[in-house]
Amino acid sequence: MDTASMLDEAIHYVKFLKNQVQSLERVAANRPAAGMGFPVPMSSGNYFPVAAKGYQATNVQHLADS
């Protein structure tokens, strides 16, 4: 597949995704706020469990020792 075809396909896909987001936003706007279905901890911004943070720190230290 040449570059122009890949870019054309990517543009169509981005337009498709934009339409999907807009339609989901319209659906969400017509729903009551309590009906979103997201648990409270997800909206706090803390998406990583404590164990994952410890794992990341271990990996960083391991890389520093190399």
TrEMBL record:
Would the keyword RNA-binding turn up in this protein's UniProt record? no
Major subcellular location class? nucleus
Q: Where in the cell is it found?
A: Nucleus
Positions of transmembrane segments: none
- The highest taxon in the source lineage is Eukaryota
The protein's UniProt keywords, in alphabetical order, are: DNA-binding, Nucleus, Transcription, Transcription regulation
Entry keyword Transcription: yes
A GO cellular component annotation here is:
nucleus
Q: Which GO terms describe its molecular function?
A: DNA binding; DNA-binding transcription factor activity; protein dimerization activity
**Signal peptide start-end:** none
Q: What is this protein called?
A: Transcription factor HEC1
| Protein source organism | Sesamum angustifolium
